[in-house]
Design a protein that fits this description.
2 copies of one chain form a homodimer.
Chain A lengths: L8 E2 L9 E3 L23 H4 L5 H8 L5 E3 L2 H10 L4 E3 L1 H7 L4 E6 L10 H13 L4 E6 L3 H13 L2 E7 H6 L1 H9 L3 E5 L5 H9 L7 H14 L3 E3 L6 H20 L6 E5 L4 H15 L6 E7 L4 H4 L1 E6 L8 E6 L21 H8 L4 E5 L1 H15 L5 H20 L4 E6 L7 H8 L10 H9 L7
Parallel strand pairs in A: 5-15, 6-7, 6-9, 7-8, 10-11, 10-15, 11-14
Antiparallel strand pairs in A: 1-4, 2-3, 4-5, 12-13
Chain lengths: ~450, ~450
C-alpha cells in the first residue's frame, strides 16, 4: 500500500537547509494588531520596548512587512548541530492502523532541550550576545523553554537567570539540574531576589508561584541589572519568525518528494510551534497558490481558540506586560490543577489569532485522557515517547487517519511532534494508574475571565 | 581549520544501511572460549541453553565462524524507524577546544530507550515472536535495557516481564513509567513472585536487591512459564552481533567521506556498545587491512579490564548462569554505592576479553568526578546531555583532543556516544552540589573478589 520510495525519515542535506526565516505577517492581508502600552494604551514603540528586549529582537517583533530575515551564520552553525530535524513518514503507524492515509510528522524532540524551543532560544541568545549584553532573564514553567535557553546561553557564554515556578521547581528537580548542567542559575519563583517576589511572598507566604509571577520577576531583574534583557519563548512575533524554520524544512522535505499535504495539524499553547510549522503553507494559502486544511489543537481545559474571545488583553497575569489583541480566556484564567497536559496559556499569538479570526485556520479541542491514550498508542508503534503537548496533535491526526479507514480517503496528514515526554512521566503515571481526570471549564468559569478583560477600542 | 565539506551530521541513506550484522568472532584468530555449564563445567550445548534462550539466538550465540548474519526484513524496517543514527562531526567542540584533532561521535541516544540497547532488543524480541513465544523476561538495573526491551516487545505484541532492582525501581519511578507506557510489567526485585525472590526476601527482609538477584528471578520466571524465554542486554555474543550495526554504519559513513580514524574509543560495561562500535574496524585490524588504536574506557570504581584477571567466572552473582572466560573482578565484586556513573558489571564480554588478552585493544580507567566534568563540558558545547556511561568515552576523547593542541597532531578520533542522561539527573545533581566522591577499590578489595573465582582448567 505504501510508497516505499519515500524514506522513513526525510533528512535535508545541509545545503538544503533554510538560510532565512519567513515572516508570515508580511503576507497577511489583515496584519495582527499592534501591542499596546498597558498604561497609555498606545501602540508600543521600539523605544518603549528597549529596556526590556534586545534591540534586534524588537526590530523583528515590530516588522510586519519584510518577508524574509536572513539567519546569521552563527545561528545556522548552531542549527546544524541538531538540525535538520527529521520529517518522519509514519509507515509503522499507518500499517498498524490499516489506514489508507499517509501520515508524516516533523519531529523536533531530538535535542537535549527536548523540544522546538531551542530554535528561538539560540536566536535570542545570539542577538543578546551581539548587542554586548552580559546575560538574559526568563521564566519557565514546565522547564522546556528554560532548558533550551540555558543551552543557547551556555553556547554563547551568556549568563542565564531562570525564574522557575516554585511548584514546578520542586516537582521537577531533574529539569532544574539539566539547566544547571548548562550553567544557568535557576531560582524558584516567587523569590526574595525581586521586589515583586518579596511582595507576593509577603501576601501569600505558602504560594507555589505562577507563570505570571515568574514573568514579573524575570522582567524586573532584566530591567534592574545593567547588561541584561528579558527573553520569552512563545506568543511573540519574533518567536514565530524563528520557529518558521520548522515549517520551511517541512515544506522543502515534502517538495523534494512531490508530496502535497491535505491537512497540517499542530498543538497550540502560545502558538510558537504551530505558527512555525504552518508559516510557509499558510503563506501559500493566503497568496492563493495552494490550499491546505490547517488545524490548531488545544486542550478542552484551556480552550483559547475554541471558546475564547478575540480581544485586547494582558499577556501576563500580573498585567504589567503589553496588551495584545488575541483569542483569550482572560489573563486571570488558569486551567484546573488536574490538567497535567501542558498548553495552559490563557492567550494566543496575535498572528495565529488573526488567522483564526479570518477563517484561515481551524481550531479544535481534545480532553487530556484522550490525549494520553493517543500518546501511548503512538509511542508503542512509532517508538517515540511524546510530550503531552505534542500528543494533542497526535490525537487529532490519529482520529483523522482512522476516519480514512472508513471513508477510504488517502489523505496526506502532516503534524508537528514538538517534543519528548521524558520529564512528564508523573503525568503518564497518573494516566496508567487511572487517576487522570478531565476538566472542562463551565460557561460561568469562562464568563468570569471575560469579565476582567480591559476595554480597548480596537 | 576544519574541512566543512563534511557535514555536521552524517546520515546514511536508507539504501546505504547495513543489511547484515557482522560477527567479529569469525575473523578472530583466538576465538573466545566457550561458555561452560556451571554444574558440569563442560561447554554449554544448544540443548542445554534451549529452556532459557530463544533458539535462533542460541544459534547466533554459539556460531563463531559465520561472518555475516542477514538482518531480517522486519528488523530492518524497525531500524529505519530510529536509524541510521548520526555520525556527528564535533565541529563546535573542536572549535571551542582549539584543537587540530578531528572529532567524530556516533550518537545512539535519539530513540526513546535513550541508548543503543534497542538495537539488540528489537532483534531478540523478533526471534522470540518468530519462535511463537508468548513473551520474554529480563532484568534491568538503571532501566535502559528494560526500556528498550519494552519498546521492542510492544512493537511485536509480546508480553514483557521486567525485574527491576528494587533500589532502582524506587529511585527511578520515571524509568518504570516509560516501561509501563510500552505495556511491560515491571516488578521490583526481589519479589514474592519467584522462589528465589521469596528465599532472598526471607533471608534479607529489607534488601534493595541486586542485578544478580533480578537475573535469577527473570530466569526462573522464563523457565517456569510456558512460552517464555529469558533475554539479556549485554555481555553475550548475540548482543555484540546485533550491536555491530553501530560500527557498520560508522564505517560506511566514514568511508563515504574518505575518513580514516586513528583512534576509536568506547565505554565498556558488559561490552555491548564497545563491541558493536569497533567490530568492523577490529576485523580490518585482525585481517591486517588497516590499523587503529582501539580503547576501552571503564570506571576506576569497576576496573574489569585494567585490574581484573582473565579467567573463567560466573556471569551472575547468584552463580546459576554459565561460566564465561573473561576479564573479571569476581562475580561478587560490587563497586561502592557512591559510584553513580554506571558500568558496574564485574565481568566483560568474552570476545572483548580475548581481544584485550591478545593485545588488540587497549583499556584505561577514569574517575567518576572527571567523567561528570567531561560530560558537562561536552553538553555545553555539543548540546547533548550524555549518559554517565557514555561520558567515560567522552572524557578520554577530550583528553586526547587536548593533547593534540600541545603536540599539533591532527588525529582523527571517533568515539561512541551511547545514550542520553535524562534519567541520571540525580547523579548530575550530586556532581553540581560537590557531593560526588570517587571510589577506587584497594588491592585487598580486588583480592577478595579473585579469591572466590571458580577453578577451571582452561
Amino acid at each position: 500500500m505504501s510508497d516505499k520510495k519515500i524514506p522513513y525519515k526525510i533528512y535535508l542535506e545541509e545545503s538544503e537547509m533554510p538560510t532565512a526565516w519567513y515572516n508570515l505577517r508580511a503576507d497577511m492581508k489583515h496584519k495582527p494588531a499592534p501591542l499596546l502600552d498597558p498604561i497609555t494604551k498606545k501602540p508600543m514603540t521600539a523605544e518603549a520596548l528597549a529596556p526590556v528586549f534586545c534591540d534586534e529582537l524588537i526590530r523583528q517583533e515590530l516588522d510586519d512587512t519584510t518577508p524574509f530575515f536572513e539567519i546569521p551564520e552563527e545561528i545556522r552553525s548552531f542549527y546544524k548541530m541538531y538540525r535538520p530535524s527529521p520529517l518522519v513518514r509514519a509507515y509503522c503507524l499507518e500499517e498498524k492502523l490499516g489506514t489508507p492515509a499517509k501520515i508524516y510528522y516533523k519531529f523536533e524532540g531530538n535535542n537535549t532541550s527536548g523540544s522546538h524551543k531551542l530554535n528561538s532560544a539560540i536566536a535570542q541568545a545570539y542577538y543578546a550576545k551581539k548587542q554586548g549584553l552580559v546575560g538574559v532573564t526568563t521564566e519557565t514553567g514546565a522547564g522546556q523553554w528554560g532548558t533550551a535557553l540555558s543551552m543557547a546561553c551556555s553556547y554563547f557564554g551568556l549568563d542565564c537567570k531562570v525564574y522557575m515556578v516554585k511548584g514546578s521547581y520542586e516537582l521537577k528537580p531533574f529539569r532544574r539540574e539539566v539547566m544547571r548542567t548548562y550553567g544557568a542559575s535557576v531560582t524558584p519563583s516567587p523569590s526574595t531576589e525581586t521586589e515583586v517576589g518579596r511582595r507576593i511572598l509577603a501576601e501569600h507566604p505558602g504560594t507555589s508561584g505562577s507563570l505570571g509571577c515568574a514573568i514579573s520577576e524575570a522582567v524586573e531583574t532584566a530591567t534592574k541589572h545593567e547588561g541584561y534583557r528579558y527573553v520569552l519563548g512563545s506568543v511573540l512575533n519574533q518567536v514565530m519568525l524563528h520557529q518558521s524554520i520548522i515549517g520551511l524544512e517541512t515544506k522543502t522535505a515534502l517538495d523534494k518528494y512531490g508530496i502535497h499535504p491535505d491537512v497540517i495539524i499542530g498543538c497550540a499553547g502560545g502558538g510558537s510551534n504551530l505558527g512555525g510549522l504552518i508559516a510557509p503553507f499558510m503563506g501559500e494559502k493566503i497568496r492563493g497558490e495552494a490550499d491546505y486544511r490547517i488545524i490548531a489543537v488545544e486542550p478542552v481545559a484551556c480552550p483559547t481558540l475554541t471558546r475564547g474571545v478575540f480581544a485586547y488583553d494582558y499577556c501576563d497575569t500580573g498585567m504589567v506586560c503589553p496588551l495584545a489583541k488575541m483569542y483569550t480566556l482572560g489573563s486571570h484564567f488558569m486551567p484546573a490543577a488536574n490538567h497535567a497536559g501542558g498548553l495552559r496559556y490563557h492567550g494566543m499569538s496575535t498572528s495565529l489569532s488573526q488567522l483564526r479570526a479570518d477563517g484561515l485556520m481551524e481550531a479544535t479541542s481534545v480532553s487530556q485522557t484522550d490525549v494520553f491514550a493517543a500518546a501511548e498508542e503512538f509511542a508503542r508503534v512509532e517508538g517515540i515517547l511524546p510530550a503531552p503537548e505534542s500528543a494533542h496533535a497526535i490525537k487529532v491526526a490519529l482520529d483523522m487517519a482512522k476516519e480514512c479507514i472508513v471513508t477510504g480517503e488517502e489523505k496526506t496528514i502532516v503534524f508537528g511532534l514538538t517534543g519528548t515526554g521524558y520529564f512528564d512521566m508523573m503525568s503518564y503515571e497518573k494516566f496508567h494508574n487511572g487517576q487522570m481526570t478531565d476538566y472542562i471549564p463551565t460557561d460561568e468559569d469562562l464568563a468570569a475571565g471575560f469579565a476582567r478583560l480591559p476595554s480597548i477600542d480596537s
